[in-house]
Amino acid sequence: MVACAPLRSHVNLSHIVRTCGCFGIRRVIACGAVRLDDKIARDGADSVELEVHRSLGPVLDRLKRDGWQLVGLEQTTGSESLFSFPFVSRTVLVIGNERLGLEEEFLDRLDRVAEIPMAGIPHSLNAATSTAIAVYEYCRQFPVGGPAPP
């Protein structure tokens, strides 16, 4: 499952939904003003449940209570390299805002944080690109897209 902090661009969310559809991730949580571009999301819009909420914090709290491990994708103190990150099947990959990343209110709720090691400049990737890399790594470890949503 993928959960997104409020994103600035509907294009990024559309790419994330398409990526999730391609890899069998069946549920994406989004917050704020949400809109998909059908030409970008394509069939992902039909195969992925897009769940929209006002704010992400309460949703993360509920998922954690329900036994999901919350893994943020962020460059921060204590983050672990995605290249050697051991996912568990019941993982929610939490994606930050394009400019702000994952704010403290979200970081404080996470069980773990993974980052994609950067070797060049710029030092960060687009939110949708980062999500695609992390979803690929999760699905490499769990090829069928993980457990069914509740």
Would you mind describing this structure in some detail?
By secondary structure, the chain is of the alpha/beta class. It has one domain: Alpha/beta knot (3-Layer(aba) Sandwich), CATH 3.40.1280.10. It is 33% helix and 19% strand. It has helices at 10-23, 38-41, 44-47, 57-65, 104-107, 127-141, and strands at 2-4, 27-31, 49-53, 69-73, 80-81, 91-95, 112-115. The protein has a seven-stranded parallel β-sheet. β1 (2-4), α1 and β2 (27-31) form a beta-alpha-beta unit. α1 packs parallel to α6 (127-141). The longest helix is centred in the last third of the chain and has 15 residues, at 127-141. It starts with a strand and ends in a 9-residue tail after the last helix. The model has no long low-confidence stretch (mean pLDDT 91).
Count helical runs: 6
Strand proportion, as a percent range, falls in 15-25%
CATH class bucket: Alpha Beta
CATH topology: Alpha/beta knot
Strand order of the largest sheet: 3-2-1-6-4-7-5
Please give the share of residues in helix: 25-40%
Shape: globular
Structural class: alpha/beta
Low confidence ranges: none
β-strand number: 7
Whole-number count of domains: 1
Assign the CATH superfamily: SPOUT methyltransferase, trefoil knot domain
* Mean pLDDT metric: 91
Largest sheet descriptor: 7 strands, parallel
Q: Could you spell the SSE succession in H and E letters?
A: EHEHHEHEEEHEH
Distance between the termini: 11 Å
Q: From the coordinates shown, what is the CATH architecture?
A: 3-Layer(aba) Sandwich
Short description:
The protein is an alpha/beta fold and 150 residues long. It has helices spanning 10-23, 38-41, 44-47, 57-65, 104-107, 127-141, and strands spanning 2-4, 27-31, 49-53, 69-73, 80-81, 91-95, 112-115.
